[in-house]
Amino acid sequence: MTKWLAGAACKDITPSEVVLQRGVWIAGFGPNRRAVGIHDPITVRALVLEKDERCIALLVGDLVGFLYNDVLEVRRRCRQLLPQIELLWVISTHNHEGPDTIGIWGPNLTTSGVDAEWLEEVRTNMVACVEEAYRSRRPASLHLGRTMAPGVCRDLREPWYLDEEMIVLEAIDEDGNSIASLVNYSNHPESLGDENPYVSADYPHWLRKRVEQERGGICIYTTGALGGMTAPRPPSFVLDPDGRIPVRNGPAQVEEGFEATAKMGEYLGERALVALRKARQESDSGSLWWESQLLQLPVDNANFSLFLRNGILPSGGRFCMIEGQQTAKTEVGVLQIGRLSLASVPGELFPEMGTMIKDALPGEYSAILGLANDELGYFVPEVNPFTGLRDYCPPTPTGERGKRGHYEETMCVHRTAARRIVDTICQLAVRIGNAQ
């Protein structure tokens, strides 16, 4: 029986002053939001785990998303450098206060907001981050925990369902020092709003900082199923006297802006620490298992078609015609780390659908990794699994909101995408369960 090996690393990808002078377009809300400066750094962070000569890497960036073509390129470079790593997932926090990495948040709807030179720096730093994490791996024990983090999420769409569970994993070396802590929670990193002109990692910056202050090591934040839409509460909220649980009435009024975002991140960091302090050690008999599946999703969304025609979205072979239907190639996967199962979703899944997947995953702990290996927008269920009512309301032929005024459908590749993704992940979960 071999021990777990774990390594972690962090690299700064904050745009330099030179890049700022060229023009940094902040992604996540509407176009034409040019950055005027940097408030706090944005980073890429890697966790490498090895067990029984099987090795995987989770790479997370403070990005709005990272397209599948770019993921494949990072994997290609890592494979040349580190063939020992058999599985690499590239995940985004879905940060709404960082540079455009997709193309659709430039100065206008027909001009890409991507700075190609800076994006190449990001790819280079991603590879370097994975390499540093791999080179630093050492014997470790893994610890798993969960808690609830209520009060800082709101649902912007019926049937008003939130998944406020937080899952944590910590790797601790033989000297008792934390190598890394992985925190998973479902909420859009957009608490600074659509008028903020400063590059920031949003609330994950303060969450990670708080965890690292107490635990040491490198804290890595991942987002879950946040579509439909799980967003931060309005930027003014009230905390109890100890700053633990947001309440409606209390003495500590937090103003909007960076102060509120910092308080939100610190609160979520405290909730993560609650889970980490009582986390249970994973047995050395645990193992690494994974399954992945390529998908060719149909695309009938007018906005995606427009972005492709204008060259805003790079095709690179992943968008192609099959039997007269525009399609997008992407992937989903399931990774089991001992008693923890993770599902990779290439975009923004509704929390209702995320709960269905979590219930189907093997193991005692389960989590969704949203924005994993791609960003294909929202995955809107045709029929809501909780209400049994039709949920998907098609946008207009020109890509505007449909009769029910929903935003999510305007950025959804196809009405069947959610069902295909959920069904495929559940099938992968069964395969992993049968293999053990």
Concise account of the structure shown:
This protein has 436 residues and is of the alpha+beta class.
Structural description of this entry:
The chain has 436 residues and is α+β, with helices and mostly antiparallel strands. It has a domain of 148 residues. Helix content is 25%, strand content 29%. Strands 1, 3, 4, 5, 6, 8, 9, 11 and 16 form a nine-stranded mixed beta sheet that branches. Strands 17, 18, 19, 20 and 22 form a five-stranded mixed beta sheet that branches. It starts with a strand and ends with a helix.
List the SSEs and their pairings.
Layout: E1 4-12, H1 17-22, E2 37-38, E3 43-51, E4 54-61, H2 68-81, E5 87-92, H3 116-135, E6 138-148, E7 153-155, E8 165-173, E9 178-185, E10 198-199, H4 203-215, E11 218-223, E12 230-232, E13 238-239, E14 246-247, E15 252-253, H5 258-277, E16 280-281, E17 288-298, H6 302-309, E18 319-322, E19 325-337, E20 340-344, E21 348-349, H7 351-360, E22 365-369, E23 378-379, H8 417-435
Parallel strand pairs: 2-10, 4-5, 9-11, 20-22, 21-23
Antiparallel strand pairs: 1-3, 1-6, 3-4, 6-8, 6-16, 7-12, 8-9, 13-14, 13-15, 17-19, 18-19, 19-20
Helix pairs in contact: 2-3, 4-5, 7-8
Overall shape = globular
Strands, count: 23
**Distance between the terminal alpha carbons, to the nearest Å?**
16 Å
Helix/sheet category: alpha+beta
Number of helices: 8
Approximate strand percentage: 25-35%
Question: Which regions contain 5 or more consecutive residues with pLDDT less than 50?
Answer: 247-253
Largest sheet: 9 strands, mixed
- Rounded mean pLDDT is 92
Helix content: 25-40%
Radius of gyration: 20 Å
